[in-house]
Amino acid sequence: MLTKDLLQYKTKKGQILPQFVNPADNQLLAIAEQLIAVFEESPNKPRATLLETSKHIVDSTPGALIVKRGLEKLLLDRTEFDTTPNEELIAFRQKLFTETSRLLSQGQFENYADYQRKVLGTMAEQPSSEVAPTAEDLGAKIYADLPSCQPVLGFKTLSAEHLLHRYNTAQVQGLLLHSDTLTLKLTDSMTAELRQLFKYLRFNQLLSTIRKAEELYQISVDGPLNLFYKTKRYGMNLANFFVAVLHQPKWELTAEIQFRNKQRYWLSLDESCGIKPISQQFLAYIPEDIQLFQTMLRNKTDDWQIRPGSQFLPLPGDLYCFPDYQLVHKSGVETAIELFHPWHQGHLIARLNTLAEQTEMSLILGVSKELEKKPLIAEALMTSAYFSQFGFIFRDVPTIRTLLPILNSLV
Predict the structure, then answer these.
(1) Residue 50: what pLDDT?
(2) What is the CATH number assigned to the segment(s) 181-270?
(3) CATH architecture of 288-410
(4) The whole model's pTM is what?
């Protein structure tokens, strides 16, 4: 992901225009290849060495500095550093500080060199010391676990062209981190790619309002600026969702962007923008929470089978829902579950209003305990006849204990 200072965009008549690079530009491809080669050779080297080498390429090659720094940032995101606390080093540092404190409290020193000699002599007497340490040895060891000294464990390589497409994608993602609203229009092809897009929407815990008009789905998603709860995490989820949009054959995206309470701009993009998908479609992927839920359900009953949501559920008022889970009873009865997380207050209220007069809907509503704590939500749940019959509260993931009574009431 690119930070605000690495984004390239222009503004014109209320529009914000991300400045994409040409993935076929030979000069940029050559620079990308050089940077990738540096990162491929980085395992076991300290972070500082890697950054020094990559900075040399950034500074010495032609082209816009902001683009090259952006490419470097994306490669760093694909690099794994050893951040494990070094318990041996922590113990050594504590021992060193204890001994120096003891020496300072016991006597006077002629000068700093005298103090330094006595510290080195004391550390040389420690059982773990095989040779007498020098001042340089101690200095290097004290700071050996600073971020600059962390060794590289691995790097997920990629092609130069793929890196440039990822750069263009990151330009859009960086803007979406500052979005208020996002609207996406998609053709009603009902392909595996479209169903997978809605799975990404749900797996990233992004609730949306889905409407269908003729052959188009219109999806409205809240942006992070429109929320008051964990906006950073939600913004990252929204940015990650854009990666799935690129797999759609035809799409149109508009988003309202605002930086630090300044003027608002509109971002408008469609499939003609030239960004290629930067990830694979994991159509058979089942998230861990689904697997856990499936295991819990099998341990309690053989009557119900659960699977990830994969079908649209029509709602009153030309609205649609794409539930988190779909469940099927051995008798053939089907139902679905839609989960509402702490940042879904507005969507939950809207859903309760939509379902207020329904008596035959087969949609179970799960509400996060954190969301229930809000007075407005607590009152809405208490007065909702629908929720009293088809709703439950959960903490991290739904539990069978709260869900099974509702499921059995449907049979």
Answers:
(1) 96
(2) 3.30.70.260
(3) 3-Layer(aba) Sandwich (3.40)
(4) 0.73
